[in-house]
Amino acid sequence: MEERSTNRERACFVVTDGRRGMENQALGLAEAIARLTPMRILPVQVPRSGALPDPGPIAPDLWIGCGMAAVRAAGEHRKAFPGAVFVYVQDPTMAPHRFDLIIPPEHDRMRGSNVFEITGSPNRITPERLAEAERSFAGQIAALPAPRAAILIGGDSRHHRLTPEVADALLERLKALRARGIGLMITPSRRTPERFVTALEAAFGADDGVWLHTGDGPNPYFAFLAGADWIFVTEDSTNMLTEAATTGTPVYRLILDGKPGKFAILYSALEAHGAVRPFLGRLDRWAYTPLHETERAAQRVLEIMARKGDI
């Protein structure tokens, strides 16, 4: 028999394979829900193959998953926890019946009675989290010249390529920003080609006006978002584009090689919202209402829970 959490402390499983991009989306949604109603968040890491681990004695009221490992786990967890509301972030591509609610990005063009589309992906960005991060790294940020730009660099994906030619052109644009006196806060990702990281280190490693974070020490990602006057994001990353557009800070999209395909829908939506513009060399300042898609999705989850009598 499942041990249900009490009404005072409902439990939410956050089920992923542990990869940061997947976990942040599911956690972001869970945290947004917990800001609206008391909810204990319990991360559950599951493998992409093989036996599933025992999730423990607590039966969740809410189950949120992201990634194919979570789709697989949902089949077993649905049997073990029949009273839970099951939510999946992204397009599961299979077995949509396992979920009470699916929250895909609108550019995936998924349809169904249990589908609730959002622009981009859920994230963990809140004003409070950004302010806390900025305080934690206040000294390092203050040491950089103002105004400042955060540079969020991804890499190769199914639709995009950070080719050597694109990387060289991007490096020249970053040098041009620096030549204008702009302080740079640069963070590559795990997908960034090593050749480009090396080029960034060679170009900016000795420059006191550049903070280049390549993975050592505490992660300043949120602080970069909080301390920036502009945010530049390579167009391969739905997560980083959406996170940047949640800040209210002007966002420039850095164009890569390839054909955007369905991601053109995302770019158009973010541009129509007023958050993002393609970077063509000119720097402007503008204001827009930050995206609140995570909160909108959280409200929808609570509606489903209320309908099932779990709220």
Describe what you observe in this structure.
- The protein is of the alpha/beta class and 311 residues long.
- The chain has a 6-stranded parallel beta sheet, with helices on both faces. The protein has a 5-stranded parallel beta sheet with strand order 3-2-5-6-7, sandwiched between helices.
- Helix 1 packs across helix 10, helix 3 crosses helix 7 and helix 5 runs parallel beside helix 6.
Summed up, what is this model?
The protein has 311 residues and is an alpha/beta fold.
| Overall mean confidence score, pLDDT | 94
Residue windows where pLDDT falls under 50 for at least 5 positions: none
Strands side by side in the biggest sheet: 11-10-8-12-13-15
Fraction in helix: 25-40%
The main pleated sheet reads as: 6 strands, parallel
Q: How far apart are the first and last residues' alpha carbons, in Å?
A: 21 Å
Query: How would you describe the shape?
Result: elongated
Write the layout of secondary structure elements.
Blueprint: E1 3-4, E2 10-16, H1 20-34, E3 39-45, E4 58-59, E5 62-66, H2 68-80, E6 85-89, E7 101-103, H3 127-136, H4 138-142, E8 148-153, E9 160-161, H5 164-179, E10 183-188, H6 194-204, E11 210-212, H7 221-227, E12 230-234, H8 238-245, E13 251-254, E14 257-258, H9 263-273, E15 276-278, H10 293-307
Parallel strand pairs: 1-4, 2-3, 2-5, 5-6, 6-7, 8-10, 8-12, 10-11, 12-13, 13-15
Antiparallel strand pairs: 9-14
Helix pairs in contact: 1-10, 3-7, 5-6
Any descriptors?
2 domains; 6-stranded parallel β-sheet; Rossmann fold; 15 strands; 5-stranded parallel β-sheet; alpha/beta; elongated; 311 residues
